[in-house]
TrEMBL record:
InterPro entries named in the record: LRR_dom_sf
Tree of life domain: Eukaryota
Name by which UniProt lists this protein: F-box domain-containing protein
Organism, as annotated: Mycena metata
């Protein structure tokens, strides 16, 4: 064996490469995910320790019990029909102390434990585990993912360790939430908590959060004002994600959030969201994401944008995302169309790399507005302006793409509705901007010129690497059943796909012409 392989740091790097969790490289279907790592571990005694550390770093409770305890201890029952079949573990005899010997051998290596995978239940054996589980098992556990259903949540106490720094679980009842008080006492080192249970809000969650002093990452359904103020004073918090926010008191306390980098809201109301952000001043966020499921007016969006200007640091913000999950339709008035001047407030965030704003009924943009806005965001990689219901005809034209080519050299993904019925003349004299980063263009439901080749020629000239054009009908079947209701949109989709199909040939012809020109010059 080469002497370098006797260096444990090198052996550990090899294990990292073979561990699919670390290397993010999963094997092909049918191949055991840890086959190569297991073979490496069995090669010699030098590799055994580091290899076993990787193999057992993450474990499910079900596998730990069934693979490490005697085979005559359990039976596996398959319940239900094939499409809803559930695997249930059943105890065949009492658990003896000696049954835990092999578990004790591997348990010190386990840092991440999870329970509650879909289609599997340990309900029948939790009572037996509660009286037989060794007290000092899993002494090095750092992360616990606890997702059993129903009354099984109460058995989380069996696996709480003072070493835990991360925990993830779902709540669905007050009886389950009432256990949180003891959880904070038993796991004071928690830095990362994730609590699911959409639609269930409990004051126990806020009280639980207030007891923790070194949190770095929090994802919970909601928090009351006291819990939010507690988090804002922590010198460690970097990420906060909520489903919604409460309505704050008439005189809210200003919240610092000194090192908060990521903030997200998945289904808030607009007014409490604005109320919360009004208590922030220059928070050094990098990532801001919010998705509204109630339709938001242009006036409300105007308020949100202006509050964001004072709430977030202008130099640090890199991602600004506003999603729309509402059911907008043609019956909603034009006040839901977002005017271009509302976007000016965001020009102060000059280091944005991703800007995504979904508007229920579209944007009132034109080429002049685009040319005025885009220079403020030279670092953009992603710019998405999707529309939920296409009731507003776009006023931007293909000519506005010159602004993106000129001012956003790193832009790779663009979503914008365009009027492509008129194709600008290509002028290759000095000053023509050719941008080589854009890979995909989503043009929503943009009207298109009959001259498909002219459109493809223009797009390929401005964006030579562009290969993918998508539309609002991109992810639908677009079959005969859809034609009656969406016929015009489907036909438009297929016409844009014809333009997409022309792009490689147009680019190849342009490259050949360039090479011929260079040959003649020689």
């Amino acid at each position: 064996m080469h002497h370098c392989l006797k260096i444990l740091e090198i052996v550990d790097l090899i294990c990292d490469h073979l561990d699919p969790h670390v290397a993010c490289k999963w094997p092909t279907l049918g191949q055991p995910p840890f086959r190569d790592l297991a073979r490496f571990t069995r090669t010699c005694s030098t590799f055994q320790g580091p290899g076993l550390d990787h193999l057992w770093r993450r474990a499910s409770l079900e596998n730990l019990l069934t693979l490490c305890m005697p085979a005559d201890l359990w039976a596996v029952d398959l319940m239900g029909e094939s499409w809803t079949r559930e695997k249930k573990l059943r105890l065949l005899r009492p658990i003896r102390t000696s049954d835990w010997n092999r578990v004790r051998l591997y348990a010190p290596r386990i840092q991440i434990l999870w329970c509650g995978s879909a289609g599997s239940s340990l309900s029948n054996i939790f009572p037996a585990l509660s009286v037989s589980l060794p007290e000092r098992l899993l002494q090095n556990l750092q992360r616990l993912v606890w997702k059993p259903t129903g009354e099984d949540f109460q058995y989380i106490h069996l696996f709480l360790r003072h070493t835990l720094t991360e925990i993830s679980f779902d709540l669905a009842s007050d009886s389950a939430a009432s256990l949180l008080a003891s959880l904070a006492e038993r796991c004071p080192k928690l830095t990362d908590i994730s609590i699911g249970g959409y639609g269930y809000n409990s004051p126990f969650v806020s009280e639980f959060v207030r007891q923790l002093r070194c949190l770095k990452k929090v994802a919970v359904p909601t928090l009351n004002q006291d819990a939010l103020e507690h988090l804002s004073q922590l010198p460690t918090l970097r990420s906060l994600h909520l489903h919604n926010v409460p309505t704050l008191s008439a005189v809210p306390v200003m919240q610092n959030f000194r090192i908060l980098r990521s903030f997200g809201l998945s289904s808030p109301e607009i007014r409490p969201t604005v109320g919360l952000l009004q208590t922030w001043r220059a928070v050094p966020l990098i990532d801001f994401r919010v998705t509204f499921y109630d339709i938001v007016t242009a006036a409300e969006m105007h308020t949100l944008f202006n509050v964001a200007v004072t709430a977030f640091s202008h130099s640090s913000l890199g991602t600004f995302y506003i999603g729309d999950g509402s059911d907008a339709d043609e019956h909603h008035p034009p006040m839901h169309v977002l005017p271009h001047h509302e976007l000016r407030a965001l020009q102060c965030f000059t280091n944005l790399t991703s800007l995504s704003i979904a508007s229920p009924l579209g944007f009132d943009l034109d080429d002049t507005a685009v040319s005025a806005l885009v220079p403020s965001w030279p670092r953009l990689v992603t710019l998405l302006l999707p529309v939920h219901f296409h009731a507003h005809a776009p006023r931007t034209t293909l000519a506005c793409l010159h602004s993106f080519a000129r001012h956003c050299p790193g832009l790779r993904h663009l979503t914008i509705a365009l009027d492509a019925t008129t194709v600008p003349t290509l002028d290759f004299r000095a000053g023509f901007a050719r941008q080589r980063s854009l890979l995909d263009l989503d043009i929503e439901q943009s009207p298109l010129s009959i001259a498909h080749l002219s459109v493809a020629r223009f797009l390929s000239a401005v964006f030579p690497r562009l290969r993918e054009i998508s539309t609002a009908r991109e992810h639908y079947n677009n079959d005969e059943d859809d034609m009656e209701e969406h016929g015009d949109a489907i036909r438009l989709h297929f016409r844009w796909k014809e333009v997409e199909a022309m792009l490689p040939d147009v680019a190849a012809i342009r490259q050949e012409a360039r090479m011929l020109g260079e040959g003649e010059n020689e």
